[in-house]
UniProtKB/TrEMBL annotation:
Organism: Chryseobacterium phosphatilyticum
Pfam families cross-referenced by the UniProt entry: Adenylsucc_synt
PROSITE patterns in UniProt: ADENYLOSUCCIN_SYN_1
Residues that coordinate or bind IMP: 14-17, 210, 225, 287
Complexes and interactors: Homodimer.
Domain of life the protein comes from: Bacteria
Pathway: Purine metabolism; AMP biosynthesis via de novo pathway; AMP from IMP: step 1/2
Name of the featured protein: Adenylosuccinate synthetase
Active site location: 14, 44
Nucleotide-binding keyword on record: yes
Length: 355
C-alpha cells in the first residue's frame, strides 16, 4: 500500500520542518520528498555528521540522498536553483529534481519588486521574489516551469512581457538582468513531470514550508504568505494519487519564533542555549528573528484548523530545540491526541527520540 507522511509547521515558520523531513528520509531511503508550497525562500537546515546544508530549491531529503519533487504550488528561480545544485554536488547530495509543469517561475524582475517595493518591505519579505511571483500570476503575465523548455523565442517574449508588467523600459537593463537568468536555464537539465510520474513511488514524504499561522487564508493579514501552509495541497495530491495511508507530523519548537514583522502572542526576550547553528538570523529584508513563550491556545488552534482539511490515519507531534530553554513542553495542554510525540535536540536532528 502506498503511504504518505506530511510535515507541517504549527507556528510562523522556522519550527524544524527540515530536520523532521530529514529524520523521515533517514528511515525511508526509497521515498520521494515533495515540496508542496513555497520555493526558494525556504531555509530548511539539515546536518548529517560534519555536513550541513540549507535546503531552499531542493527538498530536505537531498543531503540524505533522496530525490526532490516540486508541485504546481511551488516557485522556482533558475539562478538560485543552479547555485544550490552546485553546492549540493560538493556535499555529494542528490541533485535529482522533478518539477510539475505548472510550478511558477520567479524572474529577476520579481526579485527586484520584492526588494524595492515599500509595502513589501513594511509587511515583511524574504527578498527572494516569492510574493511578487504569486501576485504577478494573478495577472496575464504568467511564467510556468513548462515554459523553461519552450522554444527560446516564446520564452523571451514572455519575459519581455513580465519586464513591461513591472515598468522596465530600458532594453539594456532588461538584458543585463536576464543574462544570468538565461544562462542558468541553459545549465540545468529540466525534468518537468506531472503527478502521474509520482505513481511509481510507494512512499512519499511531503515537506511543508513556513507555518500554519502564516497561511494566506488563516493568518493575520497583511503579514501572511501567498500560500496554503496547511496540509490542504498535500491532501489534494494524495487524493489524486489514491493514497489513503496518511501520517501527519506536526512540528513546533519548544518556544515560539517569528522572523520579521507581524502579530505574535507571548513575545519576550529569551536566552537560548546550544544555538550556534541557528539559520534564521537577521537579514535586511526579514529583519530580526523574534522569540516568545509557546502559546498553547495557538497550537490548539493550528491543529484543529489543519484537521479541517483532511483526515490522517496517524498523528505525530515533533518538538524541536528542546535543549535550548529550561521550560518543559506540556503535551497535556494540547486538545489533540497523538499516536507519538518526538523530541529533537541541537544541532539539528543529531538526536531524535520518542518522548
Amino acid at each position: 500500500m502506498k503511504k504518505a507522511q506530511i510535515v507541517i509547521g504549527l507556528g510562523f515558520g522556522d519550527e524544524g520542518k527540515g530536520i523532521t523531513t530529514d529524520f523521515l528520509a533517514s528511515q525511508n531511503p526509497e521515498a520521494m520528498v515533495i515540496r508542496f508550497l513555497g520555493g526558494q525562500q525556504a531555509a530548511h537546515t539539515v546536518m548529517i555528521d560534519d555536513k550541513k546544508h540549507i535546503h531552499s530549491s531542493y527538498a530536505s531529503g537531498a543531503l540524505r540522498g533522496l530525490p526532490s519533487y516540486f508541485t504546481e504550488h511551488c516557485t522556482v528561480h533558475p539562478v538560485f536553483l543552479l547555485n544550490e545544485r552546485k553546492e549540493l554536488m560538493t556535499k555529494r547530495g542528490n541533485t535529482e529534481l522533478h518539477i510539475h509543469p505548472l510550478a511558477k517561475v520567479t524572474t529577476p524582475f520579481d526579485v527586484w519588486q520584492n526588494r524595492t517595493n515599500a509595502r513589501n518591505l513594511e509587511h515583511g519579505t524574504c527578498g527572494k521574489g516569492i510574493g511578487a511571483t504569486m501576485k504577478r500570476h494573478e495577472s496575464p503575465y504568467k511564467l510556468f516551469a513548462i515554459d523553461l523548455i519552450a522554444p527560446r523565442e516564446m520564452l523571451m517574449e514572455k519575459l519581455k512581457g513580465i519586464a513591461y508588467y513591472y515598468g522596465f523600459a530600458d532594453e539594456k537593463e532588461v538584458d543585463e538582468l536576464l543574462l544570468p537568468f538565461l544562462e542558468a536555464i541553459d545549465s540545468i537539465d529540466w525534468k518537468i513531470n506531472d503527478y502521474t510520474w509520482l505513481a511509481s513511488f510507494n512512499h512519499l514524504i511531503f515537506e511543508g514550508s513556513q507555518g500554519i499561522l502564516l497561511d494566506m487564508d488563516h493568518g493575520v493579514f497583511p503579514n501572511v504568505t501567498y500560500a496554503h501552509t496547511t496540509s490542504k495541497n498535500a491532501y489534494e495530491i494524495c487524493k489524486l494519487l489514491k493514497i489513503e495511508d496518511i501520517e501527519m507530523y506536526y512540528v513546533t519548537r519548544s518556544y515560539a519564533t517569528r522572523h520579521g514583522n507581524g502579530w505574535m502572542s507571548n513575545e519576550k526576550e529569551i536566552v537560548l542555549k546550544n544555538n550556534d547553528e541557528e539559520t534564521c538570523i537577521f537579514n535586511e529584508y526579514q529583519k530580526e528573528l523574534r522569540f516568545g513563550n509557546l502559546d498553547y491556545q495557538l497550537l490548539n488552534y493550528a491543529l484543529k484548523l489543519d484537521a479541517a482539511y483532511g483526515c490522517s490515519t496517524k498523528k505525530n507531534l515533533v518538538v524541536t530545540c528542546m535543549d535550548q530553554i529550561d521550560e518543559k513542553f506540556e503535551v497535556e495542554n494540547l486538545d489533540v491526541e497523538f499516536d507519538a510525540v518526538y523530541g529533537s535536540y541541537s544541532p539539528y536532528s543529531k538526536d531524535f527520540r520518542k518522548l
